[in-house]
Amino acid sequence: MGNRVQWMTSLPNLLHSVPIINLAIPGSHDSMTYGIKSGAEPAPDAENPTKWLNFCFPWFVRRWAKTQSASVLEQLRLGIRYFDLRLCQKNNKFFFAHGLFAMEIFEPLTELKQYLLSNKGEVCILDFQHFYDMNVSHHMKLHSDLLQLFGPLLYSKYDGTLNEFTLNRCRALGRQILLIYRRCPLFLPNEFWSSNNWQTPWPNLTSVRKLQLYLQNSLLSRNPTQGFVSQCILTPTRMYITLRIFSSLHSTAKKVDRKITPWMEDQTPGPFQDNQPPKANVFIADFVNEQFCDLVIELNFKIEVFLNIGGDA
């Protein structure tokens, strides 16, 4: 793959008018866990056994809590354009978390904003998936902080539907971020999009064979007016981890990548109607790398072929 840094900008012109919900987009699972450092404390989502293990064997917990090693800028340069974000609050400050506390949220989000401002043709999806230990006032503060940070970069409901959310339209409006905010106890600002706009079914499996079947079957339920995430990940249980005490989530991710790659290569993004087989959109993985991003980005050229031969788009 040539230019991952500006891969959206570099797409054939024909694809700039295809809705982003119909492009193939590489994403990262638990995107900010690279920020989990030595000495990290258990986060509010940690179960009691995790807290005990972290007290006795913190290195072991970190092996299974971290799902990414690349920083937000490294992920962006690799081609990642969908970010899975999970956070909590502590003393009225917001932190990324996955079993353990990672960093405060605004430093990496500011880095992402600066990257986009330097690469005007690129667009990111920020999916705020889970919130822990947060009440209504915390959500109100987070809404305000996110609007202040991203402001005019956010693609709003006033700007159009998701079927109108194209690279061309984003460029014309100066928008570069679609922000999804799930499971919120408040009414969302028009700059935020709710859960039902972007499906992300969770496999919750420890078998790669079952994962492949799940990915294929879950895709069949996709709505053509919504975005869709294929989670190419396993979810280790306590038993799974116990049987692999000297292993890590990184090793598990490598196995998934190797075995799921043929399924991913067979997928085709692009527009489809209610009476047609659904097509793929976002793919997320643990420990994203060049090969994963290249594979997903290259799928977009199947759309170009489809449109050039007069497919019903």
List the helices and strands and how they pair.
Elements: E1 25-28, H1 48-56, H2 58-65, H3 72-78, E2 82-90, E3 93-98, E4 100-104, H4 106-118, E5 124-132, H5 136-150, H6 167-173, E6 177-181, E7 192-193, E8 198-199, H7 208-219, E9 227-231, H8 238-242, H9 249-266, E10 282-285, H10 290-298, H11 300-308
Helix pairs in contact: 1-2, 7-9
Describe this protein's structure.
With 313 residues, the chain is an alpha/beta fold. The chain is built from 11 helices and 10 strands. Strands 1, 2, 3, 4, 5, 6, 7, 8, 9 and 10 form a 10-stranded mixed beta sheet that branches. The radius of gyration is 19 Å and the shape is globular. The two termini are 26 Å apart. 41% of the residues are buried.
- The overall pLDDT average reads 94
Discrete helix count: 11
Class by SSE composition? alpha/beta
The arrangement of helices and strands along the chain is: EHHHEEEHEHHEEEHEHHEHH
Radius of gyration: 19 Å
Helix content: 25-40%
Outline type: globular
Q: What does the main sheet amount to?
A: 10 strands, mixed
What is the terminal-to-terminal distance? 26 Å
The total strand number stands at 10
Strand content: 15-25%
User: Which ranges are low-confidence, i.e. pLDDT below 50, for 5 or more consecutive residues?
Assistant: none
